[in-house]
Design a protein that fits this description.
Blueprint lengths: L12 E3 L27 H15 L5 E2 L1 H15 L7 H11 L4 E11 L2 E2 L4 E3 L2 E10 L4 E10 L10 H6 L7 H15 L3
Parallel strand pairs: 1-2, 1-3
Antiparallel strand pairs: 3-6, 4-5, 6-7
């Protein structure tokens, strides 16, 4: 049973693929802990697949796909070429207008650290930070939902016991943390 925190946004939804900003001017809000650190190859594509699967599980089917949104991303980049650097907000608002959506979901990976060790024990646990921006294109407003997690042991934090048990009592990968974050934050945004 789907029980989102807020009602599903009404109107035409477009979903961008994940992006991995490496400079502060590329993010819609906040700042990066460290600039210039891209995620490992294949991470963006993996999270795009998890995002699409999660939307399907949440019974969100009628949306403009990341592939279609990418075409407008390329159009906006071309239109802005030769001009001073445009803000991330103006860029994504332009993409939303180009694709003629009422809402544009923009997911971004702002921090990624893979675990060092195995599912039985780690020297360094996995850690991720993801931002989900739901842009109301017509009203030029944005809702941000942020997911940050560094997996902790039961001894470090008993409050995470349920989550640790749900993960089989194992140390998980950054991709698993991100999957949990995608699930949680889409529900928070009504998707």
């Amino acid at each position: 049973m789907r029980s989102a925190a807020v009602p599903r946004p009404e109107g035409k939804l477009a979903v961008a693929g994940f992006s991995n900003p490496v400079y502060n001017w590329q993010i819609l809000a906040g700042y990066l802990a460290e600039e210039g650190h891209p995620v490992p190859d294949g991470t963006v594509e993996t999270l795009d697949a998890v995002l699409v699967d999660t939307l399907a599980r949440h019974q969100v089917f009628d949306y403009i796909t990341p592939a279609a949104v990418k075409q407008c991303e390329d159009v906006v980049v071309f239109e802005e070429s030769g001009l001073p650097k445009v803000s991330a907000w103006k860029y994504w608002l332009g993409v939303g207008k180009c694709i003629q959506a009422d809402y544009l979901l923009v997911p971004q990976i702002t921090y990624w650290r893979e675990r060092v060790g195995s599912d039985a024990g780690v020297q360094t646990p996995a850690s991720v930070a993801l931002d989900f921006y739901l842009i109301d294109v017509k009203n030029e407003r944005m809702t941000r939902s942020r997911y940050e997690e560094t997996q902790e042991s039961l001894l470090e934090n008993l409050f995470t016991a349920r989550k640790f048990a749900k993960r089989g009592g194992k140390w998980v990968t950054a991709t698993r943390l991100a999957s949990d974050g995608i699930e949680e934050k889409l529900m928070e945004l009504g998707l």
